[in-house]
Specification:
Layout lengths: L1 E4 L1 H8 L3 H4 L1 H8 L4 E5 H12 L12 H7 L3 E3 L3 H5 L11 H13 L2 E4 L10 E3 L1
Parallel strand pairs: 1-2, 1-4, 2-3, 4-5
């Protein structure tokens, strides 16, 4: 299984609290049942919220991508196909970051690991 982790999970990883907040995701990733991906969109969202003072990510912003790579996650860049693809059916969420994550899942053949109540029932999401 190939999973794109939503931003909440990426924050939990940076804060070293994934097992505490999302034990099922931590289990799936640690036992090798899934290959984990993190979108540049999530890193962008984390950077915005950190700079606005709305988030303490647990690590300095510039070190988060390196840490994610060290623990075996792949950073997924944003490509043109990702920004022009609609993730039908469109989710109720109006958050552009969520829509981009779903579009990346559609284009790249990934499932979105999320607990977001507006996204968990989307066909591209994996309920955990």
């Amino acid at each position: 299984m190939r999973l794109l982790l939503d931003t909440h999970m990426v924050i939990a990883i940076a804060q070293k609290k994934l097992a505490e907040r999302f034990p099922r995701v931590e289990q799936v990733l640690s036992d090798g049942a899934a290959i984990g991906f993190v979108s540049v969109a999530s890193l962008w969202e984390i950077a915005i919220k950190t700079r606005l003072g709305k988030l303490q990510p647990g690590l300095p912003l510039e070190t988060i991508p390196f840490y994610l790579g060290e623990i075996g996650l792949t950073i997924l860049p944003i490509d043109i196909a990702h920004v022009i693809t609609a993730a039908d059916p469109e989710p109720e969420a109006r958050d552009p970051f969520d829509r981009l994550l779903l579009a990346q899942c559609k284009v790249e053949g990934l499932q979105l690991a999320t607990v977001d109540r507006l996204l968990v029932d989307h066909p591209l999401a994996l309920r955990l």
